[in-house]
From TrEMBL:
UniProt-recorded name of the protein: Lipid-A-disaccharide synthase-like uncharacterized protein
Domain Lipid A biosynthesis N-terminal span(s) in chain numbering: 26-97
GO biological process: lipid A biosynthetic process
Chain ranges passing through the membrane: 20-40, 52-73, 79-98
Species of origin: Oharaeibacter diazotrophicus
Organism lineage: Bacteria, Pseudomonadati, Pseudomonadota, Alphaproteobacteria, Hyphomicrobiales
Keywords: Membrane, Transmembrane, Transmembrane helix
InterPro entries the UniProt entry points to: Lipid_A_biosynth_N, UCP028440_lipidA_biosyn
Highest taxon listed in the record's lineage: Bacteria
C-alpha cells in the first residue's frame, strides 16, 4: 500500500508541479473562467426559481473560450482547437442577439 501511495504522490507531482509553466497557468485561468459561467447560471436560476441564462454566462463563455483556444493552439490540439473555435462563434452570436434585443426594446 505505501508503494501505491508513493507512486500516486509522484504522479501528482509530475502532473501538477513539474509541468507548471505560463501555459499551464493560462489553462487553469481559462478553465476557471469557463467554470464560472455555470456558477453564474446556477445562481441566477436559483434566485429566479427557474432556469435562467444571464448575459454574464456568455461573457464568461467568451473569456474562457478565447483563453482555452489560445491554450489549445499552443498545445497544438486539433480537437480542442476546433471545439473552442466553434464555441466562440456561438458565444459571440448569442451576445449579438442579446444586444439586438436590447436595442429593439429601447
Amino acid at each position: 500500500m505505501p508503494e501505491i501511495l508513493n507512486s500516486f504522490a509522484q504522479w501528482l507531482h509530475d502532473v501538477f508541479v513539474k509541468q507548471i509553466d505560463f501555459w499551464v497557468i493560462l489553462g487553469f485561468v481559462a478553465q476557471f473562467l469557463f467554470m464560472m459561467r455555470f456558477v453564474v447560471q446556477w445562481l441566477a436560476s436559483e434566485k429566479a426559481k427557474r432556469s435562467v441564462v444571464p448575459v454574464a454566462f456568455w461573457f464568461f463563455s467568451l473569456g474562457g473560450g478565447v483563453l482555452l483556444l489560445v491554450y489549445a493552439i499552443q498545445r497544438e490540439d486539433p480537437v480542442f482547437i476546433a471545439g473552442q473555435g466553434l464555441g466562440l462563434v456561438i458565444y459571440l452570436r448569442n451576445l449579438a442577439l442579446i444586444r439586438g434585443e436590447k436595442r429593439r426594446a429601447e
